[in-house]
Write a structure and sequence with these properties.
Rossmann fold; 8% strand; alpha/beta
Amino acid sequence: MSKNCNKLIIIGAPRSGTNMLRDILCKFSGIGTWPCDEINYIWRHGNVKYVTDEFNVDMARPEVKHFIRGEFDSFAKKEKLNIVVEKTCANSLRVPFIDAVIPEAKYIFIVRDGVDTVGSAALRWKAKLDIRYLLKKVRYVPITDLSYYAIRYFSSRIYRFFSKEGRLSFWGPQFKGLDKALTQYSLEEVCALQWQRCVELSEEAFLNMPKDKVVRVSYETFVTQPVKELTRILQDLNIDFDESTVKNAVSGVTDKPVGKGRKALADNDLVNVERLVESTLKKYGYGS
């Protein structure tokens, strides 16, 4: 089963509903995912010291492919899964790399109003240490990479302690120019730039792929019409389902978060964020 396992990769910027989609899909029989939020440690193995998450195709070397594919196949076999769903937000910066590693994969590309994501993302930059969350992820750190991540993680925590903004030195997808952006822009603006880079690089990659490999989803449409949208996604992916299972899977979906992030921003921050990523917002029908 594991060698022929279908691999479904959810692509989206941070706070765009990727967790929601993953958790909903995993309610269906034969579909599952790792028992932790993301597996960026697995995706980065073999390229662990590369300074950003923007991997190119050349970085998908044979030994890198072998390791990552082996992790998928081992997990599928262990859990007896027909489909492994994976969601790591940093993958939105390296879709061609992902496709080189797992060419048979299919994708769900979810996009949310970038301004709405900003407030939530900014909170994550300032989040306190969550030991339980950390321990779940540490289980999937390759042993040879453990010391590197330990030093990097605790250095970021120390930075937060002394930071005037009370933020980590890094959080989320590491895009090219992040360090410079952190010296030039407010945290809210950096979150907006992070969203923009994730969306733009993903879009560029998917435009160069066969259309049947990618299912596109609007977060706002999904949370307002969850049954209809989930049905469409399952049909496009040729996943068997029944109506009652679909309704149960989306029973907890709510549209209350829509617009919440925009309202939480101070007027000045809202203006600055919208101006900074205006072109991308307009491309997806967002903006004032």
